[in-house]
Design goal:
Strand content: 25-35%
Number of strands: 8
Low-confidence stretches: none
Order of helices and strands: EHEHEEEHEEE
CATH topology: 2,3-Dihydroxybiphenyl 1,2-Dioxygenase, domain 1
Mean pLDDT: 95
Largest sheet: 4 strands, mixed
Oligomer: single chain
CATH superfamily: 2,3-Dihydroxybiphenyl 1,2-Dioxygenase, domain 1
Pfam family, one: Glyoxalase
Protein name: VOC family protein
Strand order of the largest sheet: 1-4-3-2
Radius of gyration: 15 Å
InterPro entries: Glyas_Bleomycin-R_OHBP_Dase, Glyas_Fos-R_dOase_dom, VOC_core
Organism: Lysobacter gummosus
Distance between the termini: 28 Å
Length: 129
């Protein structure tokens, strides 16, 4: 359904470093970066699987606070690793890895606040083996 999403951050370097580390367990790496010279003013970084710039952060006016983004994980172990990596990268805990039965019986997720206070989640919907 979605091809990509993006939002402005208050400190591009800090957020770049945070997301580079936090998204690695989900198989997301830095896919591309755009400079002000290329775009005429915008500067940003895209993360995703190889050759898929799916998750963008960049400069610009922040239009919201408390954004919520949920990223699909391939396993519960990836959710656990995302949570640990995000905390090690300076994120703040907003919900340890675990089942969230109020969403569905197999909804396994973890939540962290990024450096700007956005709620970033990793979720796996695969039943426990």
């Amino acid at each position: 359904m979605l091809d990509h999403l993006g939002f402005a951050v208050s400190d591009l370097r800090r957020s770049h470093d945070f997301y580079l580390r936090a998204l690695a367990p989900l198989g997301y790496g830095l896919v591309m970066s755009l400079s002000k010279e290329q775009t005429g003013g915008y500067e940003g970084h895209a993360f995703g699987p190889q050759h898929e710039p799916a998750f963008w952060i960049g400069t610009g006016e922040r239009t919201s606070t408390g954004l919520h983004v949920a990223l699909k994980a391939k396993s519960r172990e990836q959710v656990d690793a995302f949570h640990a990596a995000a905390l090690a990268a300076g994120g703040r805990d907003n919900g340890a890895p675990g089942i969230r039965p109020h969403y569905s019986p197999d909804y396994y997720g973890a939540f962290v606040f990024d450096p700007d206070g956005n709620n970033i989640e990793a979720v796996c919907r695969i039943p426990a083996q």
